[in-house]
Amino acid sequence: MADLKVAEALREMGKELLIHGLPELSPEERLTIMRRQLTCDLFLTGTNALTLTGCLVNIDATGNRVASMVFGPKKVIIVAGRNKLVEDEEEAIKRIKAYAAPPNARRLNCKTPCVETGFCADCNSPDRICRIITVMERKPRLTDVRVLVVNEDLGL
To answer: Which of 67, 61, 13, 69 is nearest to 44 (CA)?
Structure first.
């Protein structure tokens, strides 16, 4: 998502951005923002994988991102780069655990085996970020969700 520079454009328009990953935030501030994201007007996010049949597959540690994707915000826009396209759900999970989870764990300074080895060991570490797997097969009934597929490699 950072590749698209959307946050900068929205900030220039005077929009309030709810970004819980800013390094200067305290744990309490981060949690407050994560909860506010559940009821915001527009939730803009990425997805870990998109199957050729249109399923969105995501793996989260806390669940705030996937919760906001399926219910709460007035509108949800999910952006997927072409590198996120996979054959099916099985390939989606393999892709996430091989290409997305280890670098994300490293970025978050987690103490997990995948940070050391570069590949998922299906660990039981307290820092494990692969805790919640969601598969969105269809648009949720009460959420205005749009998926934007970009013909570029975006994110992990």
So the answer is: 69
- In the numeric block, which tokens belong to residue 36? 């506010």
Q: How many CB atoms lie within 10 A of CB 22?
A: 10
* Strand ordering across the sheet containing 85-86: 85-86, 49-51, 56-60, 132-136
Distances (CA, A) of 115 to 84, 128, 155: 21, 10, 18
Encoded tokens for 139: 């648009």
The secondary structure of 36-58, three-state, reads: HHCCCCEEEEECCEEECCCCEEE
Give me the mean pLDDT over the 48-75 stretch. 97
Around Cβ 68, how many Cβ atoms within 10 Å?
23
Whole-angstrom distance, CA of residue 56 vs CA of residue 142: 17
pLDDT tens readout for residues 3-46: 678 889 999 999 999 999 999 999 999 999 999 999 999 999 99
Q: What is the pLDDT of residues 126-144, one digit of tens each?
A: 999 999 999 999 999 999 9
